Backbone:
Protein backbone atom coordinates (compact mmCIF):
# COMPACT_ATOMS: atom_id res chain seq x y z
CA UNK A 1 0.00 0.00 0.00
CA UNK A 2 1.39 3.43 -0.96
CA UNK A 3 1.78 6.05 1.73
CA UNK A 4 -0.89 8.18 0.04
CA UNK A 5 -3.35 5.29 0.11
CA UNK A 6 -2.42 4.61 3.72
CA UNK A 7 -3.15 8.24 4.59
CA UNK A 8 -6.54 8.11 2.85
CA UNK A 9 -7.40 4.94 4.73
CA UNK A 10 -6.31 6.57 7.97
CA UNK A 11 -8.51 9.59 7.31
CA UNK A 12 -11.54 7.37 6.78
CA UNK A 13 -10.79 5.37 9.92
CA UNK A 14 -10.47 8.58 11.93
CA UNK A 15 -13.95 9.63 10.90
CA UNK A 16 -15.60 6.24 11.43
CA UNK A 17 -13.78 4.44 14.23
CA UNK A 18 -14.74 5.17 17.85
CA UNK A 19 -11.36 6.28 19.27
CA UNK A 20 -10.40 8.27 22.31
CA UNK A 21 -9.04 11.60 21.02
CA UNK A 22 -6.29 12.67 23.35
CA UNK A 23 -6.53 16.04 24.97
CA UNK A 24 -4.45 18.92 23.73
CA UNK A 25 -1.34 19.37 25.86
CA UNK A 26 1.14 22.20 25.90
CA UNK A 27 4.52 21.77 24.29
CA UNK A 28 7.24 21.26 26.91
CA UNK A 29 9.12 24.25 28.27
CA UNK A 30 11.76 25.34 25.69
CA UNK A 31 15.25 23.95 26.10
CA UNK A 32 18.50 25.91 25.90
CA UNK A 33 19.07 25.04 22.23
CA UNK A 34 15.47 25.60 21.10
CA UNK A 35 14.61 28.40 18.67
CA UNK A 36 11.37 30.13 19.65
CA UNK A 37 9.75 33.13 17.92
CA UNK A 38 8.59 35.65 20.51
CA UNK A 39 6.39 37.61 18.09
CA UNK A 40 5.09 37.03 14.58
CA UNK A 41 5.78 39.20 11.54
CA UNK A 42 3.23 39.97 8.84
CA UNK A 43 5.44 39.88 5.79
CA UNK A 44 4.29 41.23 2.39
CA UNK A 45 2.12 38.79 0.47
CA UNK A 46 4.30 36.20 -1.25
CA UNK A 47 3.88 34.77 -4.68
CA UNK A 48 3.75 30.99 -4.46
CA UNK A 49 3.82 30.56 -8.22
CA UNK A 50 5.67 27.38 -9.06
CA UNK A 51 5.37 26.11 -5.46
CA UNK A 52 3.54 22.82 -4.84
CA UNK A 53 0.07 23.61 -3.46
CA UNK A 54 -1.00 20.09 -2.45
CA UNK A 55 -0.34 18.75 1.03
CA UNK A 56 2.47 16.20 1.00
CA UNK A 57 3.24 13.72 3.79
CA UNK A 58 5.97 11.16 4.01
CA UNK A 59 8.18 9.40 6.55
CA UNK A 60 11.29 7.27 6.55
CA UNK A 61 12.83 4.72 8.87
CA UNK A 62 15.94 5.60 10.87
CA UNK A 63 18.83 3.38 11.91
CA UNK A 64 18.43 2.82 15.64
CA UNK A 65 22.16 2.20 16.00
CA UNK A 66 23.00 5.68 14.67
CA UNK A 67 21.85 8.34 17.15
CA UNK A 68 20.75 11.60 15.53
CA UNK A 69 23.04 14.50 16.36
CA UNK A 70 22.21 18.17 16.16
CA UNK A 71 24.12 19.82 13.33
CA UNK A 72 26.74 22.19 14.68
CA UNK A 73 27.57 25.64 13.29
CA UNK A 74 30.36 25.60 10.73
CA UNK A 75 33.70 26.81 12.10
CA UNK A 76 36.16 28.27 9.65
CA UNK A 77 39.84 27.63 10.39
CA UNK A 78 41.43 29.84 7.77
CA UNK A 79 45.00 29.69 6.47
CA UNK A 80 44.10 32.22 3.79
CA UNK A 81 44.03 35.91 3.09
CA UNK A 82 42.52 37.99 0.31
CA UNK A 83 42.71 41.68 -0.44
CA UNK A 84 41.57 43.95 -3.25
CA UNK A 85 44.67 45.70 -4.58
CA UNK A 86 44.55 48.74 -6.87
CA UNK A 87 46.42 48.82 -10.18
CA UNK A 88 48.71 51.55 -8.81
CA UNK A 89 49.70 49.56 -5.71
CA UNK A 90 50.27 46.36 -7.69
CA UNK A 91 52.49 48.24 -10.14
CA UNK A 92 54.61 49.66 -7.28
CA UNK A 93 54.62 46.35 -5.38
CA UNK A 94 52.09 44.61 -3.15
CA UNK A 95 53.64 43.20 0.03
CA UNK A 96 52.82 39.77 1.42
CA UNK A 97 53.94 38.20 4.68
CA UNK A 98 54.42 34.49 3.93
CA UNK A 99 54.70 32.03 6.86
CA UNK A 100 55.35 28.71 5.03
CA UNK A 101 57.39 27.91 1.90
CA UNK A 102 55.40 27.26 -1.28
CA UNK A 103 52.36 29.48 -0.66
CA UNK A 104 49.72 29.52 -3.42
CA UNK A 105 48.79 32.91 -4.89
CA UNK A 106 45.66 33.53 -6.99
CA UNK A 107 45.02 36.70 -8.98
CA UNK A 108 41.45 37.55 -10.00
CA UNK A 109 40.53 40.80 -11.81
CA UNK A 110 37.83 42.73 -9.91
CA UNK A 111 36.15 43.35 -13.26
CA UNK A 112 35.35 39.94 -14.75
CA UNK A 113 35.40 41.47 -18.24
CA UNK A 114 39.02 42.55 -17.85
CA UNK A 115 41.82 40.52 -19.38
CA UNK A 116 43.32 38.01 -16.92
CA UNK A 117 46.85 38.43 -15.57
CA UNK A 118 49.50 36.17 -17.06
CA UNK A 119 51.28 34.68 -14.02
CA UNK A 120 54.60 34.73 -15.91
CA UNK A 121 54.29 38.53 -16.14
CA UNK A 122 54.28 38.86 -12.32
CA UNK A 123 57.57 39.93 -10.79
CA UNK A 124 58.34 38.29 -7.42
CA UNK A 125 60.70 40.18 -5.11
CA UNK A 126 62.27 38.60 -2.02
CA UNK A 127 65.08 40.05 0.11
CA UNK A 128 65.82 42.71 -2.51
CA UNK A 129 66.22 40.20 -5.34
CA UNK A 130 63.78 40.08 -8.29
CA UNK A 131 62.52 36.89 -9.91
CA UNK A 132 61.00 37.40 -13.36
CA UNK A 133 59.35 35.13 -15.97
CA UNK A 134 58.27 32.55 -13.40
CA UNK A 135 61.72 32.02 -11.89
CA UNK A 136 60.28 32.64 -8.42
CA UNK A 137 57.49 30.13 -8.97
CA UNK A 138 57.44 26.34 -8.79
CA UNK A 139 54.23 26.02 -10.86
CA UNK A 140 51.80 28.28 -12.70
CA UNK A 141 48.17 28.04 -13.76
CA UNK A 142 46.95 30.29 -16.53
CA UNK A 143 43.42 31.59 -17.03
CA UNK A 144 42.82 29.16 -19.92
CA UNK A 145 43.61 26.21 -17.65
CA UNK A 146 41.31 27.61 -14.97
CA UNK A 147 38.53 27.99 -17.56
CA UNK A 148 38.97 24.33 -18.55
CA UNK A 149 38.01 23.31 -15.00
CA UNK A 150 41.35 22.06 -13.68
CA UNK A 151 40.96 24.25 -10.56
CA UNK A 152 37.89 25.56 -8.66
CA UNK A 153 38.77 29.22 -9.28
CA UNK A 154 36.58 32.01 -10.69
CA UNK A 155 36.81 32.52 -14.44
CA UNK A 156 39.53 34.98 -15.39
CA UNK A 157 41.75 33.92 -12.49
CA UNK A 158 45.34 32.81 -12.75
CA UNK A 159 47.52 31.29 -10.05
CA UNK A 160 51.04 30.26 -9.12
CA UNK A 161 52.92 28.58 -6.29
CA UNK A 162 55.88 30.45 -4.86
CA UNK A 163 59.15 28.53 -5.14
CA UNK A 164 59.83 26.74 -1.85
CA UNK A 165 63.51 27.64 -1.94
CA UNK A 166 62.56 31.30 -1.45
CA UNK A 167 61.50 30.39 2.09
CA UNK A 168 59.32 32.59 4.26
CA UNK A 169 59.17 36.25 5.20
CA UNK A 170 58.16 39.37 3.32
CA UNK A 171 57.52 39.10 -0.42
CA UNK A 172 56.53 41.69 -2.97
CA UNK A 173 54.44 41.13 -6.10
CA UNK A 174 54.55 43.54 -9.03
CA UNK A 175 52.35 43.46 -12.13
CA UNK A 176 50.92 45.88 -14.67
CA UNK A 177 47.10 45.83 -14.79
CA UNK A 178 44.32 48.15 -15.91
CA UNK A 179 42.22 47.79 -12.77
CA UNK A 180 41.91 46.42 -9.24
CA UNK A 181 42.87 42.80 -8.60
CA UNK A 182 41.84 40.43 -5.82
CA UNK A 183 45.05 38.88 -4.47
CA UNK A 184 44.29 35.62 -2.66
CA UNK A 185 46.97 33.73 -0.71
CA UNK A 186 46.65 30.20 0.69
CA UNK A 187 49.35 28.83 3.01
CA UNK A 188 48.82 25.10 3.59
CA UNK A 189 50.55 23.96 6.77
CA UNK A 190 50.85 27.45 8.27
CA UNK A 191 50.80 27.83 12.06
CA UNK A 192 48.88 31.09 11.75
CA UNK A 193 45.14 30.59 11.49
CA UNK A 194 41.99 32.62 11.94
CA UNK A 195 39.03 30.80 13.49
CA UNK A 196 35.47 32.05 13.02
CA UNK A 197 32.10 30.57 13.95
CA UNK A 198 28.57 31.68 14.81
CA UNK A 199 26.97 30.55 18.06
CA UNK A 200 24.05 29.02 16.14
CA UNK A 201 23.24 27.97 12.59
CA UNK A 202 20.02 29.97 12.30
CA UNK A 203 18.52 33.12 13.81
CA UNK A 204 15.22 34.97 13.82
CA UNK A 205 14.92 38.66 13.09
CA UNK A 206 15.33 40.50 16.38
CA UNK A 207 17.76 37.98 17.85
CA UNK A 208 21.45 38.63 18.48
CA UNK A 209 24.12 36.95 16.38
CA UNK A 210 27.20 36.09 18.42
CA UNK A 211 30.50 35.26 16.74
CA UNK A 212 33.56 33.59 18.20
CA UNK A 213 36.78 34.88 16.61
CA UNK A 214 40.18 33.35 17.29
CA UNK A 215 43.59 34.38 15.87
CA UNK A 216 46.42 31.99 16.74
CA UNK A 217 50.04 31.25 15.90
CA UNK A 218 51.17 27.70 16.71
CA UNK A 219 48.28 27.34 19.15
CA UNK A 220 48.99 30.58 20.98
CA UNK A 221 46.73 33.61 20.84
CA UNK A 222 47.86 36.47 18.64
CA UNK A 223 46.94 40.11 19.09
CA UNK A 224 45.48 41.70 15.99
CA UNK A 225 46.56 45.24 15.14
CA UNK A 226 43.31 45.85 13.24
CA UNK A 227 40.06 44.16 12.28
CA UNK A 228 37.65 44.57 9.39
CA UNK A 229 34.37 42.65 9.52
CA UNK A 230 31.03 42.78 7.68
CA UNK A 231 27.71 40.94 7.53
CA UNK A 232 26.49 40.37 3.96
CA UNK A 233 22.79 39.84 3.18
CA UNK A 234 21.49 37.75 0.25
CA UNK A 235 20.36 40.97 -1.49
CA UNK A 236 23.86 42.50 -1.38
CA UNK A 237 23.39 44.78 1.63
CA UNK A 238 26.19 44.82 4.19
CA UNK A 239 26.66 45.97 7.77
CA UNK A 240 29.97 46.59 9.57
CA UNK A 241 30.85 44.54 12.66
CA UNK A 242 32.99 45.54 15.61
CA UNK A 243 35.42 42.90 16.85
CA UNK A 244 36.15 43.18 20.58
CA UNK A 245 38.11 41.28 23.21
CA UNK A 246 36.25 38.40 24.86
CA UNK A 247 36.46 37.41 28.51
CA UNK A 248 38.52 34.30 27.61
CA UNK A 249 41.20 36.41 25.91
CA UNK A 250 39.99 35.72 22.39
CA UNK A 251 37.78 37.94 20.27
CA UNK A 252 34.04 38.18 19.68
CA UNK A 253 31.40 40.16 17.80
CA UNK A 254 27.66 40.71 18.14
CA UNK A 255 25.03 41.91 15.68
CA UNK A 256 21.28 42.43 16.07
CA UNK A 257 19.50 40.61 13.27
CA UNK A 258 16.52 43.01 13.32
CA UNK A 259 18.04 45.13 10.53
CA UNK A 260 17.79 42.17 8.16
CA UNK A 261 14.15 41.40 8.94
CA UNK A 262 12.96 41.96 5.39
CA UNK A 263 15.42 39.52 3.80
CA UNK A 264 15.33 35.91 5.01
CA UNK A 265 17.91 33.49 3.67
CA UNK A 266 21.61 32.67 4.02
CA UNK A 267 23.78 35.49 5.37
CA UNK A 268 27.58 35.59 5.31
CA UNK A 269 30.16 37.04 7.69
CA UNK A 270 33.58 38.14 6.41
CA UNK A 271 36.37 38.91 8.87
CA UNK A 272 39.88 40.18 8.14
CA UNK A 273 42.59 40.33 10.80
CA UNK A 274 45.89 42.17 10.44
CA UNK A 275 48.69 41.32 12.86
CA UNK A 276 52.39 42.05 13.28
CA UNK A 277 54.76 39.12 12.85
CA UNK A 278 58.51 39.70 12.98
CA UNK A 279 57.97 43.39 12.18
CA UNK A 280 55.92 42.53 9.09
CA UNK A 281 52.18 42.92 8.55
CA UNK A 282 50.39 39.57 8.32
CA UNK A 283 46.88 39.14 6.93
CA UNK A 284 44.24 36.47 7.55
CA UNK A 285 40.64 36.35 6.27
CA UNK A 286 37.79 34.02 7.21
CA UNK A 287 34.15 33.51 6.27
CA UNK A 288 31.20 31.77 7.84
CA UNK A 289 27.46 31.79 7.25
CA UNK A 290 24.17 31.62 9.12
CA UNK A 291 20.49 31.50 8.19
CA UNK A 292 17.97 34.21 9.01
CA UNK A 293 14.26 33.39 9.17
CA UNK A 294 11.26 35.68 9.35
CA UNK A 295 8.94 34.58 12.20
CA UNK A 296 5.87 34.44 9.95
CA UNK A 297 4.48 31.40 11.80
CA UNK A 298 5.04 29.50 15.03
CA UNK A 299 3.76 26.62 17.10
CA UNK A 300 0.60 27.81 18.82
CA UNK A 301 1.52 25.74 21.88
CA UNK A 302 -0.87 22.78 21.55
CA UNK A 303 -0.04 19.24 20.45
CA UNK A 304 -2.14 16.06 20.43
CA UNK A 305 -1.35 12.37 20.06
CA UNK A 306 -4.32 10.94 18.19
CA UNK A 307 -5.05 7.22 18.79
CA UNK A 308 -5.93 5.42 15.56
CA UNK A 309 -7.50 2.00 15.07
CA UNK A 310 -6.00 0.22 12.07
CA UNK A 311 -3.90 -2.83 11.32
CA UNK A 312 -0.32 -2.20 12.33
CA UNK A 313 1.21 0.40 14.64
CA UNK A 314 0.37 4.06 13.97
CA UNK A 315 1.22 7.30 15.74
CA UNK A 316 -0.50 10.46 14.52
CA UNK A 317 0.54 13.76 16.06
CA UNK A 318 -1.43 16.95 15.50
CA UNK A 319 0.39 20.22 16.10
CA UNK A 320 -1.33 23.63 16.18
CA UNK A 321 0.46 26.20 13.99
CA UNK A 322 -0.24 29.93 14.19
CA UNK A 323 0.32 31.67 10.84
CA UNK A 324 0.74 35.41 10.27
CA UNK A 325 1.76 35.22 6.59
CA UNK A 326 0.38 32.80 4.02
CA UNK A 327 3.12 30.52 2.71
CA UNK A 328 4.05 26.88 2.25
CA UNK A 329 5.32 25.52 5.55
CA UNK A 330 6.96 22.25 6.50
CA UNK A 331 6.52 20.39 9.79
CA UNK A 332 9.12 17.77 10.67
CA UNK A 333 9.76 15.61 13.70
CA UNK A 334 11.57 12.43 14.72
CA UNK A 335 10.01 9.63 16.78
CA UNK A 336 12.15 7.88 19.38
CA UNK A 337 11.31 4.65 21.20
CA UNK A 338 12.86 2.63 24.01
CA UNK A 339 15.27 -0.18 23.18
CA UNK A 340 14.01 -3.18 25.27
CA UNK A 341 17.55 -4.49 25.76
CA UNK A 342 19.41 -1.33 26.80
CA UNK A 343 16.49 0.77 28.02
CA UNK A 344 17.86 3.72 26.04
CA UNK A 345 15.90 5.97 23.70
CA UNK A 346 16.75 5.24 20.06
CA UNK A 347 15.63 6.93 16.82
CA UNK A 348 12.85 5.13 14.96
CA UNK A 349 11.58 7.34 12.13
CA UNK A 350 11.29 10.89 10.84
CA UNK A 351 8.08 12.30 9.36
CA UNK A 352 7.40 15.43 7.34
CA UNK A 353 4.29 17.27 6.25
CA UNK A 354 4.31 20.23 3.86
CA UNK A 355 1.28 22.36 3.03
CA UNK A 356 0.20 25.87 2.13
CA UNK A 357 -1.17 27.40 5.32
CA UNK A 358 -3.49 30.39 5.46
CA UNK A 359 -3.38 33.00 8.22
CA UNK A 360 -4.85 31.90 11.52
CA UNK A 361 -4.30 28.75 13.60
CA UNK A 362 -4.27 25.44 11.76
CA UNK A 363 -3.60 21.87 12.99
CA UNK A 364 -0.86 20.09 11.01
CA UNK A 365 -0.30 16.35 11.35
CA UNK A 366 2.76 14.11 11.42
CA UNK A 367 2.02 10.48 10.55
CA UNK A 368 4.18 7.53 11.63
CA UNK A 369 2.50 4.46 10.12
CA UNK A 370 3.16 0.73 9.78
CA UNK A 371 5.52 1.40 6.85
CA UNK A 372 8.08 2.87 9.28
CA UNK A 373 7.05 1.36 12.64
CA UNK A 374 6.54 -2.34 11.94
CA UNK A 375 9.57 -4.37 12.97
CA UNK A 376 11.17 -1.44 14.76
CA UNK A 377 11.69 -3.59 17.88
CA UNK A 378 11.18 -0.73 20.32
CA UNK A 379 8.62 -0.05 23.03
CA UNK A 380 7.26 2.75 25.21
CA UNK A 381 8.15 5.28 26.46
CA UNK A 382 8.13 7.15 23.13
CA UNK A 383 9.27 10.70 22.46
CA UNK A 384 8.68 13.11 19.60
CA UNK A 385 11.91 15.06 19.22
CA UNK A 386 13.49 17.73 17.05
CA UNK A 387 10.15 19.22 16.02
CA UNK A 388 10.75 21.87 13.34
CA UNK A 389 8.62 24.41 11.55
CA UNK A 390 10.13 25.64 8.30
CA UNK A 391 9.19 28.14 5.64
CA UNK A 392 9.79 26.19 2.44
CA UNK A 393 10.16 29.08 -0.08
CA UNK A 394 13.05 30.57 1.95
CA UNK A 395 14.35 27.19 3.24
CA UNK A 396 14.52 28.68 6.73
CA UNK A 397 13.83 27.14 10.15
CA UNK A 398 11.36 29.32 12.05
CA UNK A 399 10.89 27.27 15.21
CA UNK A 400 12.67 24.23 16.62
CA UNK A 401 11.92 22.17 19.74
CA UNK A 402 14.34 19.52 20.97
CA UNK A 403 11.53 17.70 22.82
CA UNK A 404 7.88 18.02 21.78
CA UNK A 405 5.89 15.10 23.27
CA UNK A 406 6.36 12.13 25.61
CA UNK A 407 4.22 8.97 25.47
CA UNK A 408 4.64 7.06 28.71
CA UNK A 409 2.80 3.91 27.58
CA UNK A 410 1.32 2.28 24.53
CA UNK A 411 -1.98 3.66 23.26
CA UNK A 412 -4.95 1.58 24.29
CA UNK A 413 -7.97 1.90 21.98
CA UNK A 414 -11.51 1.31 23.23
CA UNK A 415 -13.40 -1.73 21.88
CA UNK A 416 -15.28 -1.08 18.66
CA UNK A 417 -19.01 -0.42 18.78
CA UNK A 418 -21.12 -3.53 18.38
Residues:
Amino acid sequence: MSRKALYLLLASLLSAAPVCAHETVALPRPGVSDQIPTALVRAPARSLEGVENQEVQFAWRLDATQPLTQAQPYRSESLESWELVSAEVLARGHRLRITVPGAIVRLSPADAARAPIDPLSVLVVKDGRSYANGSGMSSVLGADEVASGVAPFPDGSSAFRLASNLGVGEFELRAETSGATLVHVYEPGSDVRLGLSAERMSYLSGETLRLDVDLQNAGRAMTASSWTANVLAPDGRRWPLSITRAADGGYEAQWTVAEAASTPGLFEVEVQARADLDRSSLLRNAKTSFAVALPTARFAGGIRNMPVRMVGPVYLFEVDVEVATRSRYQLEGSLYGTDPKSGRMVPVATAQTAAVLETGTTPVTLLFGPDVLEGANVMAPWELRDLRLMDQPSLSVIERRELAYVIAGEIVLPPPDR
Summary: Residues 101 and 326 are 57 Å apart (CA to CA).
